[in-house]
Amino acid sequence: MSNNRTLIAYATRMGATAESALEIEAILRQKYGLDVVNLKKNPSPKLREYNNVIIGSGIAMGKWVRQALQFLGNSFEGKKVAVFISSTMAGDPRSYDETFTKFIKYWQCMLTLNLLPKQPLADASDF
Predict the structure, then answer these.
(1) Is residue 10 domain-resident?
(2) Residue 58 and residue 104: Cα distance in Å, rounded?
(3) Verdict on whether the full-model pTM lies above 0.70
(4) Which long-range contacts (CB under 8 A, 24 or more apart) does 71-76 make?
(5) Could you give the CA distance from residue 33 to residue 6 in angstroms, rounded to a whole number?
(6) Which of these ranges, 24-33, 40-49, 91-100, has the smallest mean pLDDT?
(7) I want to staple 10 with a disulfide (CB 3.0 to 4.6 A). Which of 23, 56, 87, 124 is the partner?
(8) How confident is the model at residue 116 (pLDDT cuts 50, 70, 90)?
(9) Helix (H) / strand (E) containing 106
(10) In whole angstroms, what is the distance from residue 10 CA to residue 50 CA?
(11) Considering the domain boundaries, does residue 14 fall inside one?
């Protein structure tokens, strides 16, 4: 596994998350070897090939796209992990803070219930 291999794995309902994944790819492509995977088409990419994993999901009515949520059940031990979401609620500047707070509370709940790996998430400077 090369230390610079990065997987961008996403699931989208209407296409906005796919657009975001491609924007992230365009920014990171110069520095890292990248693969972009639509989890609806390939729900089980080979994680052993990557040191960095970026996971994206659309959010509708507070719910993740099923394939992205299922992908979070993998072991990401020893990997740097980042997450992004696409949500129409977050698109309105008036509701940004409320949406962000809901997202953080959701993650805290998932971690508390041991539904996500308890490893630190990477920040943008790690990639």
Answers:
(1) no
(2) 15
(3) yes
(4) 71/9, 71/11, 71/39, 71/43, 72/110, 72/115, 72/116, 74/47, 75/47, 75/117, 76/47, 76/117, 76/119
(5) 6
(6) 91-100
(7) 56
(8) low
(9) helix 96-112
(10) 15
(11) no
- Residue 75 in any domain: the answer is yes
Residues ≥6 apart with Cβ < 8 Å to 93: none
- CA gap 25, 79 in Å, rounded: 18
CB neighbour list of residue 37: distance below 8 Å, 6 or more residues apart:
7, 8, 9, 10, 45
CA distance 93 to 23: 21
Q: How many structural domains are present in the chain?
A: 1
| DSSP conformation class of 29 | T
Q: Using CB atoms within 10 A of its CB, is residue 107 exposed (0-12), middle (13-18) or buried (19+)? A: middle
- pLDDT tens track for 54-77: 999 988 877 788 899 889 888 888
Bigger pLDDT: 42 vs 106 = 42
